[in-house]
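Allow me, if you will, to draw on your knowledge of protein folds for a short while. A protein sequence and the structure tokens that stand for its backbone fold form the material at issue. I would ask you to consider whether the tokens describe a fold that such a sequence might reasonably adopt. Thank you for your consideration; the sequence and its tokens are set out here:
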Amino acid sequence: MNVRILEKDDYKKMKELFFDVFSNEPWFDQWNEEQLDLYMKDLTDNNNSLSLALYNDNDEIVGCSLGYVFNWWEGKEYYIKEFFIARNYQNKGIGSRFISLMDEFLNKNEFQFITLMTDLDVPAYNFYKKNGFKHLNDSAYFVKRVTK
């Protein structure tokens, strides 16, 4: 397995993988084609976007990390907005392997931090803790609805 920047030719496969993962347990998202296209463009088509893919030995995508690069006073930060592994590869240590390979890739490219946000009541929370991410008790994530 190896990690590299998502190739343009693999965009469609990445989008299909995202849809398959998040349309099923435990998320059951209900994406329509238009909203999914807009969301994927938001994630992958910005100057600071960084889309990393995990490829198996047959050069097929089995996971992706979609996020952004931010330059902070302490150095470069990779903010993960979406992280997903093909359902048939889940619960086999592949996600942890992906995180480890991402660490190597980001270290070589002079990143100092990986940051992300997740809900406390989803399996991803414990996955990230197991893989060295720290829950910041002195930080808060805020949301405000602007429509009624």
Remarks:
- The chain has a mean pLDDT of 94.
- Helices lie at 11-22, 33-44, 94-108, 123-130.
- The beta strands are 2-5, 49-55, 61-72, 75-85, 111-116.
- Residues 2-130 form a domain with the Aminopeptidase fold (CATH 3.40.630.30).
